[in-house]
Design the sequence.
């Protein structure tokens, strides 16, 4: 948490986050053009933001793209705000996804666990439901096989797709079709990639949600920070995240909401 606060204390770094808030997936050159400082100066600020986990990068050809990662900010919210807040506070974390549109969203988090245990939490229906809004996942997790997402007591499918790549406990790539409402059904199919990398006694987890249309409904990807926060909480403490909305499908009669 200290790295997050230090990174956000500087107004230039906050401005860089604002630029990525406005348009995700920018190059160093594109970001540097908006600031009256040297390319090296912008690079130093971005490096500090990366070290704090607030910015993640991805290579695309010769370009290095920078993405805003809201997960650390969500963790701060969960730790100090949500326990006192009313349900509307959780909606504020969706402000970013309400205001922007992008073909690709990237999220990262560090979790003190083993790759095998993290893989189990992603693929086991009971464990998955504990941090994924109460929704489990059912599949044999073989390449080319189908998966379904639903609450164990609910009759309706909430999501479905195909396991495109399965490499336990390192990488899982899935197509994803949301089914919890007509608005998200109309968005068609996108793709979610889970990448697990061991780091000492912990794991670095990177989730990439891409193949989204420009201006896609933010329900498709807006809940990832809460999902990953809940995953970290479960594996490190054994407890469930209790922020508003984190278990919305635990009661089958609860109102519907997206990822």
Sequence:
């Amino acid at each position: 948490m200290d790295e997050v606060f230090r990174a956000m204390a500087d107004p230039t770094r906050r401005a860089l986050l604002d630029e990525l808030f406005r348009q995700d997936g920018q190059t160093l050159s594109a970001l540097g053009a908006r600031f009256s400082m040297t390319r090296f100066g912008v690079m130093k600020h971005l490096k500090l933001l990366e070290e704090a986990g607030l910015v993640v990068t991805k290579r695309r050809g010769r370009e290095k793209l920078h993405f805003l990662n809201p997960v650390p900010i969500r963790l701060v919210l969960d730790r100090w705000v949500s326990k006192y807040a009313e349900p509307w506070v959780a909606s504020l974390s969706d402000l970013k996804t309400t205001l922007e549109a992008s073909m690709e969203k990237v999220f990262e988090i560090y979790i003190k666990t083993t790759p095998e245990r993290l893989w189990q939490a992603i693929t086991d229906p009971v464990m998955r439901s504990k941090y994924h809004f109460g929704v489990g996942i059912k599949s044999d997790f073989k390449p080319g096989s189908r998966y379904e997402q639903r609450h164990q007591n609910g009759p309706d499918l909430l999501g479905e797709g195909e396991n495109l790549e399965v490499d336990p406990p390192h990488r899982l790539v899935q197509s994803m079709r949301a089914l919890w409402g007509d608005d998200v059904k109309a968005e068609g199919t996108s793709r979610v990639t889970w990448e697990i990398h061991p780091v000492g006694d912990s794991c670095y987890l990177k989730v990439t949600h891409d193949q989204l249309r420009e201006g896609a409904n933010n329900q498709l990807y807006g809940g990832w920070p809460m999902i990953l926060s809940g995953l970290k909480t479960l594996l490190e403490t054994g407890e469930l995240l209790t922020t508003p909305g984190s278990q919305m499908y635990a009661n089958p009669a609860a109102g519907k909401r997206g990822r």
The chain has two domains: 2-68, 101-237.
